[in-house]
Structures are given as structure tokens and as C-alpha cells.
Amino acid sequence: MPPGGGGPMKDCEYSQISTHSSSPMESPHKKKKIAARRKWEVFPGRNKFFCNGRIMMARQTGVFYLTLILILVTSGLFFAFDCPYLAVKITPAIPVVGGILFFFVMGTLLRTSFSDPGVLPRATPDEAADLERQIGNTEDIANGSSSGGYRPPPRTKEVIINGQTVKLKYCFTCKIFRPPRASHCSLCDNCVERFDHHCPWVGNCVGKRNYRFFYMFILSLSFLTVFIFAFVITHVILRSQQTGFLNALKDSPASVLEAVVCFFSVWSIVGLSGFHTYLISSNQTTNEDIKGSWSNKRGKENYNPYSYGNIFTNCCVALCGPISPSLIDRRGYIQPDTPQPAAPSNGITMYGAMQSQSDMVGAMRLPLSSSPDPRKQCMREKGMEM
Ligand SMILES: [Zn+2]
Ligand SMILES: [Zn+2]
């Protein structure tokens, strides 16, 4: 290469690909490899993670496996013992429709169970310290007068949504003011956005990010249960016309088991689907319905501020609206200089590395509205995640 021809530009290019500069590049890379831990490994909530953080579930998953076994065994027996007979005697469309329904049920179940329901990230120690200071409850903590069981009185803020006053409660574990409709799941130990309920049958919370899949799961499961039940009965009736009722039961003993499972589960599944159809059409959550948050009994002026006022719009928003990105960057790497979420400490904040950023933060520190850079970054990055 002719020296001096290209000037500083070429020198710069050359030095970037030269072997000399690779040695200082290598050492931080090595360091990263040693210390590369993902955020799910230190996640503060009580959740289980699989596949390197891709799958997220509640801690207790026993009932979820029961759900899985019931669906797999009942459908498996139906396809193995009833479908061959029905396909020949009635129409081959029966196993086809049953198969489509089965895969839809399994898909929506796994999507509900394995995804982030909309967990709100906990405040970092710095953010928690700022918030505590704004609340003005810091003196006794700073003086160290707080005892082990200390818990400050409940704190709330009020916001007005569509003319309704909504109380925002402070979460002592996550150290944030919960956004409207969020609630803390005691089993998963997280605040969840638009918290519906914790469902042990799917082994996860049901919230903003997986509610539609939960609804589609119970709705399709009602259809599948009714479908299997109806055709198992048809199968037994057709056989008994040929060989008599007792011989028909002897010839296909699996049908008896399927009919029993379907008969006992169909009522609750269909009832639950109906209940959630009502909730979706009025844009309520199970949590709000149980508490009677928007019930007329609380006064004539009490109405649901989240409802769009028409059943069709409410359904469209719940089922077809955009899915918000996950706010917990669970597959992201932990940066050594990034503060980690504050550990739950019964309302007592650790004042380790307090910085004077309090002026920057508004009176209400909602993680959604005024997030610090790491969370915004996380939101951008997680656009593709489940
Ligand atoms: Zn919380
Ligand atoms: Zn939960």
C-alpha cells in the first residue's frame, strides 16, 4: 500500500482491520464471556424459566401438566379409537376438524402458558430511593429507626381516566406505583399489567400480553370438548345398533373414559368461556369483576372507564389490538454497570448509591410513561419476543 496516499481516512480504515488492534478488542470480549449472565437468571419474581429464558412460567406448574395430560390423553384416545370408525361410517371430515381444533387448543394453551403475561419491571434501588424521597417517608428510614416488621401506611395516588377517579396503589415489593388495572400476583410475586387472574391450569398469570390467547384457548377447548363428547356418543350409539349396548362398550372401552372426562369438564369450560365473553364485551378483567370495581352497587356514577361503550369495539380491542412488547428484557445480558431491581425489603429502601436525579423524575413514577433508558431500550429490543 502506498503510504500517505489516502491520508488519515485510509490510516483509520487500516488500523481497524489490522491485527494489532485485535488484542485490545479480545480482552473485553473474553470478559463478557465469563460474566455473561442473562437477566432471567437473576429475575426477582417467583417464575420458572426454560430454554435460556425463552419460556416463562409460574413457579408451580403441577396443575398445568394435569391440563396437558387431560387434553392429550382424551384427544389421543378419540383419534385412535373413535375416529377410524367415524371416518368410515360417517365422514372423514370428523378427524380433520378434530385435528384442526386440537392443534388450535394446544397452540393457544402453550402461548398462554409460556409467555410473559405483562410483568412490570421492578424499580432499581436508585428509582425506589427517588420515589421514597418524593413520598416524603424517608426520615425514619434514613435514621435507621425502622424495625424488621416496619411497613409504612398504604400510599395511593389518584388519576382520572375518562372522568372516573382511579386509585394507583404503591407496590411495596416492586417499589412502583402500579399503573391502572395492574395488580401484584402473590404467587408469581410480580406486578402484572391489566392483571386478569392467576390461572394454575395454564401455569401462568393471565394479563395484558396473554389474555387473548387464554380466551381463545378456553373458547376452542369448549368446542373441542363438545365435539369429542358428541362424536363419542354417536360412535357408541352406532355400534350399539349393530351389536347391542354392552358389546359396544366392550368393543371401544376408551370411548367410556373420553365421555366421562368430557362430561365432567364441559360444564366448567363452557361456563368459563361464557364468563370471559361477557368480560371481553364489557372490557373488564376478572379481578375488576370480582372486586365489583365498576358495579352499579357502588353508586350510579360508577361506570367502567375502560369500556369503549360498544360491545363490538370492546371485543376488537381485546382480540385484535396490538400486543404490547415485553417490558422485562429476560434474555438480555446483565451489564455490570446497570443497577438491578431493588430486592423486596418490606418497604424499607436501601440507600446504597443514591444519585441526585430526583428532579428529573415526575411525581408519579410509572414504568410505562417515564421509563429510564434501559427499559425503553428493552421495549425496542423486545418487539419480536413472545
Ligand atoms: Zn408488585
Ligand atoms: Zn401469577
UniProtKB/TrEMBL annotation:
It comes from Heterocephalus glaber. It is found in: Membrane. This is Palmitoyltransferase. GO terms for molecular function: protein-cysteine S-palmitoyltransferase activity. PROSITE patterns: DHHC. It catalyses: L-cysteinyl-[protein] + hexadecanoyl-CoA = S-hexadecanoyl-L-cysteinyl-[protein] + CoA. It comes from the Eukaryota. Residues 373-386 have a biased composition (Basic and acidic residues). It is a multi-pass membrane protein. The chain crosses the membrane at residues 63-81, 93-110, 213-237, 257-281. Belongs to the DHHC palmitoyltransferase family. Its EC number is 2.3.1.225. Residues 167-291 form the Palmitoyltransferase DHHC domain. Residues 366-386 are annotated as: Disordered. The keyword ATP-binding does not apply.
